[in-house]
Each structure stands twice: as structure tokens, then as C-alpha cells.
Amino acid sequence: DQQVKQNSPSLSVQEGRISILNCDYTNSMFDYFLWYKKYPAEGPTFLISISSIKDKNEDGRFTVFLNKSAKHLSLHIVPSQPGDSAVYFCAASSGGGADGLTFGKGTHLIIQP
Amino acid sequence: SAVISQKPSRDICQRGTSLTIQCQVDSQVTMMFWYRQQPGQSLTLIATANQGSEATYESGFVIDKFPISRPNLTFSTLTVSNMSPEDSSIYLCSVRTSGDYSYNEQFFGPGTRLTVL
Questions:
Q1: CA dist B81 to B4, B5, B65, B78, Å?
Q2: A27-46 per-position pLDDT tens digit
Q3: Terminal CA-CA length for chain B
Q4: Interfacial B residues in 74-113 facing A (CB < 8 Å)
């Protein structure tokens, strides 16, 4: 039973446009959510996180939105750049982030020139 | 963020053998975790490596198969025992630290790519 779901295996976006990556979760105990970016042959790189007490967190070009009632979060990247091409993982944790992470299967983002 | 290194970066092993993966962090950290990523799959938490006590394993993972050591606040090892081809995965350690940035982010090492023949 997958507790964190990323239903789009891949997403193609033109350079300069907005990239929106989506993530759904089923476990109501999750209270901390993170996005990671991963290049081949490297470990995941932390991008941005959000606590369940917030509905939005922004860091530069990256914004994460959390809709607790829908158990849905999204990552917005504006503007998209070629270096953003990578696999993006959504992850969730309980205990305020103290516990290990449960990951989605990832979305492969391709930024086209 | 912490700088994390793993050894080896990759290995090819014969079934029935064991491999120990090392994870070294450049600063003292409170929590260390071990994950694996099987081919085409997501990352799955294996266990939490606790300093000074036994590791805490997730459902489906047992100490006999994946013994973990955490002798101090900067180092941990994961052993993959009696390997089979199904153990072929990328194994990653991660750390959670406190500091100037948020307490709750986890940072990952580069991973160890294991192939079992």
C-alpha cells in the first residue's frame, strides 16, 4: 500500500514556464513533507519542505503548497531552467519530521529549450 | 548541510556473500538512516541507526539480514548479509541534523550501487 503517490512518472515543460509537480498521501499521521531532486548516480538533494501547520512555503524559484484536507501537495518551479531536469521525489514524515521518510516513486521532469 | 560520504560507491558481489557499506559524516549528527532504492522503485527506509543502542528496523527488514552499527555520532555501517540478486539496489544513508537550518530536513549521501550476481 503506497502511502505517498506521485501519479505522473514524467513531465515535460518548456524553459521559462512553470513546472508543477504533484503528490498525494494517504497517511493522516504525516505532518512534515519534503521535496528532493535526484540526478542519476547521485543521492537525493533536499529542495524544500513544509510543516502541516502551514499551507505554503517559498524558497527562491521553488514553492510548495499543502492542502491537508485533500491530502495533496505540489511543488511549483518558476521559471523552469534546463538544470531543473531531474527526478523529483516527494517525501513525508510523522513526528514533526523526526521519523524516517516515506517516498513517492518520483516524477521525471524534463525542461525543453 | 552536512557532507556525507559512502564507501564503496559501487560493488559487484556473488550471491551468498556479505558487503559492509560505510557512511561518514563531517559533523556530529543526531539521527542517521539507511534507505535502499531498488531498480525502478522509490526509496524505502530500512532502519534508523541509533547511537549507543540497537537500530530500529522498518517492517520487512530484519537485523540478521541488515545488521547496522553506529559506534559514534559521525559514522555508521550497514551490512547486507547472505546476498541474493534481489538485494541489487542503491543503498543510501541519510542524516538529520540541528543547526542554523531547519531541524527536520534529511540529507543524503551519494549512495552505494550494489549488484549481486
A1: 23, 22, 5, 9
A2: 999 999 999 999 988 999 99
A3: 36
A4: 92, 94, 96, 102-111, 113
